[in-house]
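FW: tagging you since you asked about this chain on Friday. Here's the raw sequence from the shared folder, copied in full. Didn't touch anything.
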Amino acid sequence: MILIAYASKSGFAKEAAEILAKTLPPAGLVDLVDLTQKTPALDGYDSVIVGAGVRVGAINKAAKSFLDNNRVALGSKRLGIFISNCFADSTDEVLKSSVPEELRSSAVWIGSVGGRLDTARLKGIDKMIAKAASRAVKEDQKVYDGLDHAALEELASCFH
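HL: got it, structure written out here
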């Protein structure tokens, strides 16, 4: 059994998790859980993929708590970790500051699956922060404009 647990604010991490759930065979042996709604028990899962959206340089708090609170159990599973972020050059820094080192080193796949700075998907303070971030983009900065399907395929291939 494979668990795909995600936490998403703007919806890109959720979308990536849903694509992974459809990609991973065999059907029916993959559970998809929104960490902002439920904290799953890890018993019965051989493999776990944890995904999170990024806001202000850190992963979603629900995903961070899940990783921190389950680091021992996750260390004994086949583990994949993905983030959905819009700033490609911030991936390593976000992962280093948000994911415990022992999980980063034991994961069979860890990285970004892309994303987009999409203010239309946000409300309130999140929308204001995103607008400020979009104005701060530097000319040479690599910005994702959607999900990176090649990265999703690479991640999925580690769990076939």
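FW: The two ends are 11 Å apart (CA to CA).
HL: agreed, and The longest strand covers residues 47-55.
FW: great, closing this out.
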